[in-house]
Amino acid sequence: MTTKSTAARDAAEDAQLHRGALSLTGAVMQGLTHIGPTAGVILILQTEVATVGLATPFAFMVGVVVLFLVAVVLAQLARFLPSAGGFYVYISRSLNPRVGWFAGWINMLYDPFGTAIDLAALGYVFNAALQTNYHVSFPWWATFLIGAVIVTVVVYRGIEITGRTQVILGGLEILILLAVSVQALISPGAGGISGAAFTPGSAPKGSDLFVAVILAVFTCAGFESIAPLAEETREPRRNVPRAMLISVGIVGAFFVFCMWAMMVGWGTSHLSSMASFSGNPVFEVAHRLWGPAWVLLLIAIVNSLLSLSIATSTSSTRVIYAMGRTGALPRWFGQVDRRFGTPRNAIIVQTVLTLGLGLGLGFAMGPFNEFLMIGVAITVCLGLLYVLSSLGVIRFFLTEQRRSFNPLLHLVIPVAAIVAVGFVLYNNVHPVPPYPINIALPLAGGWLVVGIVTAVYMTRTGKTDWLDKATRVVDEAELPTAADN
Hints:
- By secondary structure, the protein is mainly alpha-helical.
- The protein is built from 18 helices and no strands.
């Protein structure tokens, strides 16, 4: 029995992720669906208009520029350091393995928690739409549980199925909202089509354009989830960086166009009524344009939040697996299912975390408050990862890859990204936001402190076997080294 158990364990440890199973298109869709463009437009438009009025598209244009700077930075590391570890390996290799472990710990608050809040938002939105339009109630937690089962099955069955699912769900949500947006321009509301929305001068006097830009930046974030799929992506050194830049470009154009079109469809001459509208303004525009067929937009946001949940779960389980494989987390996490080529134990833990966190906080504070609170905590952690990666690019190309150093790509743009993200981070926490969002700050701070204490403990107790492995990437022999410079 012992021999059989040992053999089974060894077989699981020898199993590998499915190399080259994901195409460039699949990688791009991972980035797109992780951003959740349709959900972003539907959930955030009203808040943006209340903040900055007609200048909402301009705020998103600025936000996309900030994210494109970050995408260029991460693309530099992705080209040289393809790995399922994502930020964990990027920062371990470019700065220091201990800092990389800390980055991996930060990432553990980002994606693993993301699946829980995305499914909570799905349950909330679906129930609210049914109650408002059909006077039917379907408990948010029931939708949550159904979604959790779908996500777990899709992610467990393999990256090929995950990729195909993302293409179908992501493509469908984008096409539906684009169709409504085009119709809104053809049949505009009062005020007609206005190009002033693309200028800062269209913001109402006294409005806070900076707040709107901050909201835009983190509504569009998520493209970096492509990085942990490097070991399963075809030609990762080429396709992962391209997928990052392409996904940011597509989503940026999509957000700006659809936000503008929905405002035109509502009526640019009375946008103030959108801010005080008791329902969802995007659904209301769809009602006016499509009548009963507005339900297609409800299907679109369900698709969007479901595919977003799949994307966050896919990304998080690869990072957990990579840290387990190197020993930075218990090696139990580093086991792969031989049949499906997926990180089995990481997926099991991800599912348990999703159910416990999502349902627990959802019942305690309500699913939408959960979404907002954890979302801000995730935002803080993601911003720190962006800053560490930008510092890593500067150091990596001034040392190990000095021969490839480009002043614009490896110094000017990373510094610009650090300044932009730093500004966003500061204004995200100052002044302190109201309840329940203010809970996010001690949550994020506590998470960071636990990570620091754990890293120090591992170092002082000599549990550092993982340090050398933390910097390894796919096809290491192909990576130019300092000795080649």
